[in-house]
Amino acid sequence: MSGDILQVVNDATPFIAAAAASYGSAVLAQAQDEAASATISAGRRILLRVFGHREADDPIAGLLDEVAADPSDPDTVGALRRELRNALTEDSQLVADLRAMLAGAAPSVTVGTNEGIISTGSAATNTINNTR
User: Fold this and answer.
1) Among candidate residues 4, 9, 11, 27, the one with its CA nearest the CA of residue 107
2) Cα–Cα separations (whole angstroms), residue 87 to 2, 58, 64, 105
3) Domain containing residue 84
4) Within-domain flag for 100
């Protein structure tokens, strides 16, 4: 497996896990909810692009329901990652498509007035030195 596929899987997992945790297998059939968070919406779009619409008795739908039942279970999330990796390994265009989708799903912040620190990204850190 190429490092590129593994990176896409790592980048996509939080989005697809959030969507699965919120909707279970319905994420592949449900109309878009305008109130869904950006993360869940991005996860839903990724899941639909990778797996398409599925019937309730499909194994992928069952796996999404398992993630919804316990999104903190590393085994079920790992199984979802495995299915994503397998799909990406079989389709190089899908890798490119997901990279583009993930680039557009990056967190952003809109601020009217701020008197503090705003950090985004999983590696963001802040150090405050109070010298008063």
Assistant:
1) 11
2) 13, 15, 15, 20
3) 3-104
4) yes
Domain presence at residue 110: no
Cα-based angle 104, 109, 113 (whole degrees, multiple of 5): 155
Tokens 């990204």 correspond to 121
Whole-angstrom Cα distance, residue 71 to residue 109? Answer: 26
62: CB partners within 8 A, 6+ apart: 25
Report pLDDT digits (tens) over 71-86: 889 999 999 999 999 9
Number of domains the chain is built from: 1
The pair of three-digit structure tokens given for residue 28, joined into one six-digit string: 């592949």
Task: Give domain status of residue 111, yes or no.
Answer: no
Encode pLDDT of 112-124 as tens digits: 666 777 666 666 6
Residue 18 forms part of a structural domain: yes
Total-model pTM:
0.63
What are the two backbone dihedrals, phi and then psi, of residue 126, each rounded to the nearest 5 degrees?
-135, 140
- Can you read off the two tokens belonging to residue 126? 């802040």
For the record, the structure tokens of 35 come out as 């109130």
Nearest to 48 by CA among 30, 65, 35: 30
